[in-house]
Amino acid sequence: MRTIIEPFRIKSIEPIEMSSPEMRSEWLTEAGHNLFRLPAERVLIDLLTDSGTAAMSARQWGAMMAGDESYAGARSWYRFEETVRRVFGFAHVVPTHQGRAAERILFGCTVNSGDVVPSNAHFDTTRANIEYLGGHAVDLPCAEAADPTTDEPFKGNVDLAALEALLDARADDVPLIMLTITNNTGGGQPVSMANIRAVAELAHRFGKPLYIDACRFAENAWFIKQREPGYAGTSIPEIVHEMFSHADGCTMSAKKDALVNIGGFLCTRDPSLAEREKNLLILSEGFPTYGGLAGRDLEAIAAGLEEVLHEDYLRYRIVSTAYVVDHLHDAGVPVVRPAGGHAVYLDAGRFLPHIPALQYPGQSLAAALYQHAGIRGVEIGTVMAGRDPDTGAERPPQLELVRLAIPRRVYTQSHMDYVVEAIVEVFERRDRLAGYRITDEPPFLRHFTATFAPLG
Ligand code: F0G
């Protein structure tokens, strides 16, 4: 059969409130033209994020009822710890309420002012946590990542020569190396096993630990199985094991590939670092056997980490994203290719070439998609890139993108058909879209709360 169906049936539904373009124009103005400021009920198809938006399985809900809410040493903690150790292969597991808490604790124990932390590309919270400590978060994506039109298989890879040059020049200032799989900022593109292995070899040659930002680890493993020679016959759990065997630890937002609505963890092989991390954890997250989570959350994560490794799930997941990307590409819409794992990235720079970077083409496109069809995406361009902490200047990124992130197991193919149709319609009248200016912005992570006014 050509059609790949959703490998689940729907047991519980959540109605969508219908609205008109006129109503949405008014709501957009009320929200300061920032889609983060919209009440979610005013959105028809919410593609703001794939984070914490998954639909859980009946098995996960069942596991939640069995959650042990003991403060210390709960049964649910031991089940969670055993599952994380089995899937990722790290000895020490520290639970946190979400991914950025894991980042804050890891960097709080390792990064000092003036340090440099290289990565293929840091996600915004990773960057912000490093910069908050006075460090520099440096992105070293491979050259192929710069061209959104080519079909290279592993555009998430690190530029190994650039990493080696940085380590040669500044090894003393590098406390650790990060690797984001898949690379969210760069289009949800995967990192190959060969690149993970090479980054680890380089890191270890300089005596530096490698930490993986593991949010979308299962999607990355699926791409390795599909695209990297030698892995077609390897099971997903084995690929995952091999990926992490090269690393010294990881940070994880369970809100992505653990198929839950809240949670995270960090792992390490270093017992003394684990001790320091747990001491910091107690200050803000909680006791090391729950770390800011309820016992039921730990149960749902443990179950989700097993479900996400199923090949039927991963095939459906990756094919759904590619379905939207391929249809848009066929209609002539500029979109990052090849399709990534968790999201469709519209190339707003090429979609709206008449809007300059400092008039925020991605913001304009995201607002237009909402107004036209009630679809909520997010700008990943000049607005999100923010300002240089040293100079205060805006720093336009390589690409001006709008990300349409697809929640896991939530929307069906007809929702995706509607999304494709809406984007094509906005594309047909793209000449009418104008830029924006910022009317108010906070000092960090400005995209969440800034307000805008349309130009012209
Ligand atoms: N790392 C990556 C690669 C991420 O994509 C995210 C979150 C985090 C870390 C932080 O995790 O939200 O649990 O604290 N990304 C979400 C997104 C917010 O929409 O891409 P968190």
Automatic annotation (TrEMBL):
Classification via InterPro entries: ArAA_b-elim_lyase/Thr_aldolase (IPR001597), Beta-eliminating_lyase (IPR011166), PyrdxlP-dep_Trfase (IPR015424), PyrdxlP-dep_Trfase_major (IPR015421), PyrdxlP-dep_Trfase_small (IPR015422)
Keyword Hydrolase applies: no
Annotated GO biological process: aromatic amino acid metabolic process
Protein name stated in the entry: Tyrosine phenol-lyase
NCBIfam families the record matches: PRK13238.1
Domain Aromatic amino acid beta-eliminating lyase/threonine aldolase as annotated: residue spans: 46-421
Keywords, comma-separated and alphabetical: Lyase, Pyridoxal phosphate
Family per record: Belongs to the beta-eliminating lyase family.
